[in-house]
Design the sequence.
């Protein structure tokens, strides 16, 4: 099976990962592949949680493909070839972003559509097969700094210690409170709530027009007044009469579900004031006030009987991902909270895991721990900030209220509508090509580049001291000389 990192660290540490979501299992896998001992603590009682669709951009899909292989990944993924844009109220086709094979080839990956639960289970399997110890039903009450060993205090009375604690416990991270040394989460409501739902294929195929959506390899987006909806098919792995090894059977590639996601204003979402991020709140679809919808979208929502709800809470940027002792670090949404149902949040979490695991696969001395942790934040902070900013802007673009900005958007999209098909160079096409530029990022390369440029530099300096060499300045590290 393909692996996360290609070598084990000379010095192996014990890690505790708080949180068993996508970020937690991904970082557990990469650290285990680097030879470290990893324990994951997850407060949910079992694996599996309410979930809807997950868009997997090329920068994430190529990581998953490296980890499990293209054939295995294809069993639970549907290829996204286009993103058509519609008016939510009228159903008018406004534009169509084509994710063409030649463009995707440049990024090194594919744009995939999957189910969150399938990716979660995949990462859990990878982590446990690599050696991670996973405990479910464990609530962390407190995280205590310590040098050389921090600790976690559990609800059941146990205190566990490790060399490093990784906070992968999401936007409401308890680990982040220790890192920032604050008691309260200063998150404020954004005014929007995200919903996710699933329509079984057996239901959606009753409608010929909706059946076409299920059968297409597209991720359509409907843009409305302060709200938007996106959806896509989901491929589920099923066993046929020929057995699990029959990878070419049509039954194993059937699109068995249609995933729906909504970004809705709180006043029409029926969101209580005390609700925060969760995805564990299940509400009837009838509790949401939709207003005017195109006939097709209205029928689609009528088939979605219930929704998973997560409120979008806004926070200021988190400046510190590492505590003062350099023994506690944040990854995923604990470090950079994302708006719920965003396309790039999971990808950023997996990239975090790759960078952290790659850096620590080079660990040979405890003196390197602070350097590696700070390098991790240095490598990842700018990347996640920029991608988060771009995605928030794209989401706002989809839910413009009536007014001049929305009129200008619609006029631009209508002018560019035909340019997607004839290959001409329109303004909307340039915008989407700019977004696609984010897909070419290589997380492992970023970590390896830092190691080659700076990490080995520092290692050479330490070795020079050990063997009687010295350097006068940091700038002179490359010019080591014998003691006189």
Sequence:
């Amino acid at each position: 099976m393909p692996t996360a990192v290609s070598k084990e660290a000379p010095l192996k540490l014990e890690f505790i990962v708080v949180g068993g979501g996508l970020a937690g299992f991904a970082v557990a896998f990469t650290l285990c592949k680097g030879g470290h001992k990893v324990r994951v603590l997850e407060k949910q009682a079992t694996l599996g949680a309410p979930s809807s669709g997950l868009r997997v951009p090329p920068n994430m899909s190529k990581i998953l493909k490296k980890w499990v292989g293209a054939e295995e990944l294809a069993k639970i993924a549907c290829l996204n070839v286009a993103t058509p844009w519609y008016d939510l109220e009228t159903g008018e086709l406004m534009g169509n972003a084509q994710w063409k094979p030649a463009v995707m080839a440049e990024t090194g990956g594919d744009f995939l559509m999957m189910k969150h639960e399938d990716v979660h289970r995949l990462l859990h399997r990878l982590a446990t097969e690599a050696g991670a110890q996973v405990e479910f039903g464990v609530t962390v009450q407190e995280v205590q700094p310590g040098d050389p060993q921090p600790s976690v205090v559990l609800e059941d009375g146990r205190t566990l210690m490790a060399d490093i604690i990784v906070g992968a416990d999401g936007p409401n991270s308890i680990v982040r409170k220790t890192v920032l040394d604050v008691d309260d989460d200063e998150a404020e409501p954004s005014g929007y709530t995200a919903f996710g739902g699933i329509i079984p294929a057996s239901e959606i195929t009753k409608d010929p027009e909706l059946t076409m959506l299920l059968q297409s390899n597209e991720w359509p987006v409907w843009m409305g007044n302060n709200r938007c909806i996106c959806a896509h098919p989901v491929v589920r792995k099923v066993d046929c009469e020929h057995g699990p090894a029959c990878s070419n059977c049509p039954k194993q590639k059937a699109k068995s579900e249609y995933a729906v996601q909504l970004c809705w204003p709180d006043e029409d979402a029926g969101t209580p004031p005390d609700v925060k991020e969760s995805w564990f709140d299940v509400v009837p679809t009838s509790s949401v006030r939709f207003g005017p919808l195109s006939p097709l979208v209205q029928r689609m929502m009528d088939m979605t009987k219930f929704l998973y709800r997560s409120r979008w809470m806004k926070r200021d940027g988190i400046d510190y991902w590492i505590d003062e002792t350099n023994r506690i670090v944040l990854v995923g949404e604990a470090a950079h909270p994302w708006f719920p149902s965003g396309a790039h949040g999971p990808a950023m979490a997996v990239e975090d895991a790759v960078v952290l695991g790659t850096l620590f696969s080079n660990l040979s001395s405890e003196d390197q721990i602070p350097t590696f942790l700070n390098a991790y934040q240095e490598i990842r902070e700018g990347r996640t900030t920029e991608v988060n900013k771009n995605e928030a802007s794209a989401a706002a673009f989809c839910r413009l209220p009536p007014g001049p900005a929305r009129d200008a958007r619609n006029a631009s999209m209508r002018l560019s509508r035909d340019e997607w098909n004839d290959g001409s160079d329109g303004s909307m096409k340039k915008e989407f090509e700019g977004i696609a530029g984010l897909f070419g990022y290589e997380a492992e390369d970023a970590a390896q580049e830092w190691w080659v440029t700076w990490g080995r530099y520092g290692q050479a300096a330490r070795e020079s001291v050990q063997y009687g060499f010295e350097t006068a300045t940091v700038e002179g590290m490359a010019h080591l000389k014998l003691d006189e």
Observations:
- The first strand starts at residue 14 and ends at 18.
- Residues 217 and 443 are 27 Å apart (CA to CA).
- The longest helix spans residues 368-398.
